[in-house]
Design a protein that fits this description.
By secondary structure, the chain is of the alpha/beta class. The chain is built from 12 helices and 13 strands. Bound molecules: pyridoxal-5'-phosphate (PLP).
């Protein structure tokens, strides 16, 4: 396809403010973790409503760090939704533990507890609800299940900054919560991740693990085995600016979601709406089509619109040896789910182009 792209899938909202914010790093020549990182950390803890948090170079390593600090390792199994970005599962692999794929429900694509019941064994150590597409998983059900089976909860909140379960921030509910600041996430630092917890013991482990087995820099005595999970003050300066914009970013995404719901009513598709227990930050505006997603996307592409498919089911990924013949809801979602462009700087004219193209397709 060599059409001109008129409506890209996503553009990060970084501009003059972020550019200005990094100047202080250059002026002070402090570019590794320092004062900006400290400020960003405090701002995030306040926003999420948790006691402790540490940065990681990206969301994948945030999950890995969180799992390690929870004591997940070889011989353990972790329940991971079949419908998520691959990193939820590969972070488990990195620890030497085994991800066990469980299904998601069809309406909000969140972890399905009936499927968890079938998958849990005496090796299961943790469960990873992934708050997918800016909606919260049903944490009441997840906590009940985790309690009943003695499991630790690690929340993959990579797509859920700003999202609330009831009145609590996603990521603040389990033993550990993980965020990503990749370029296409709700707020971005280019690359970046954050691990939060309210547990002082886990926090202690996180600090040793991320800082070469010591609590403070400047000493060459290392009490434990640890690694380097630092970020830079340049990223943190950008992150602080992004966090200031979060409300605006969320309101813009929400506006486009409302517009899509209204304008696409009556077509043979269902725009996703959030569950009652969750607030909504349309990380992606998604819909389930009556017709094949690949055909919808091909039509949109002809009109210069970049739609994106849903996640390919993890149990079918060539990289995983675990194969299953069970029919997962995630198979259905991959076939019929579409992500529409909905980014803060999108224009009403671009919105109109997408809606017109979809109306033509479904006519
Ligand atoms: C983006 C993402 C990750 C990984 O984050 P990176 O910063 O890209 O490593 C993990 N889980 C989910 C659900 C994500 O969307």
């Amino acid at each position: 396809m060599n059409e001109v792209i008129k409506v890209p899938q996503f553009i990060p909202s970084i501009g003059v403010e972020e550019y200005a914010s990094i100047k202080t790093c250059f002026d002070t020549t402090w570019i590794t973790e320092g004062p900006q990182t400290q400020k960003f950390q405090e701002a995030l803890l306040e926003h999420i409503g948790v006691k402790y948090g540490v940065f990681a170079p990206n969301g994948t390593l945030a999950l890995y760090l969180g799992l390690c600090a929870m004591g997940v390792g070889p011989g353990d199994e972790v329940l991971v939704p079949d419908f998520t970005f691959i990193a939820s599962a590969t972070a488990v692999e990195m620890t030497g533990a085994t991800p066990i794929f469980v299904d998601v429900e069809l309406e909000h694509f969140q972890i399905d507890m009936d499927s968890c019941k079938k998958a849990v064994t005496n090796k299961t150590k943790a469960i990873m609800p992934v708050h997918i597409y800016g909606m919260s998983a049903d944490m009441t059900a997840v906590m009940e299940f985790a309690d009943a089976h003695g499991l630790l909860i690690i929340e993959d909140a990579a797509q859920a900054i700003g999202v609330k379960w009831k009145n609590r921030s996603c990521g603040s509910v389990g033993a550990v919560g993980c965020f990503s600041f990749f370029a296409d996430k709700t707020i971005t630092t280019g690359e970046g991740g954050f691990v939060v917890t309210n547990d002082a013991t886990i926090y202690d482990k996180l600090r040793y693990l991320r800082n070469q087995g010591r609590l403070h820099r400047g000493t060459f005595i290392h009490n434990r085995i640890g690694y380097n999970f630092r970020i830079t003050d340049i990223q943190a300066a950008i992150g602080l600016t992004q966090l200031d914009k979060l409300d605006w970013i969320c309101s813009r995404k929400y506006y486009f979601w409302e517009q899509y719901v209204e304008r696409l009513a009556g077509l043979d598709l269902k725009v996703t709406t959030p569950p009652a227990h969750s607030s909504y930050v349309p990380f992606r505006v998604t819909f389930i089509s009556d017709l094949l997603a690949c055909d919808v996307m091909a039509h949109l592409a002809q009109d210069g619109i970049e739609a994106r498919s849903f996640f390919y089911p993890l149990h079918k990924q060539p990289c995983f040896t675990c194969k299953s013949s069970e029919v997962f809801n995630s198979d259905h979602l991959y076939k019929y789910g579409v992500c529409l462009p909905a980014f803060p700087t999108m224009t009403d004219m671009q919105l109109e182009l997408v809606c017109t193209s979809l109306k033509e397709f479904y006519a």
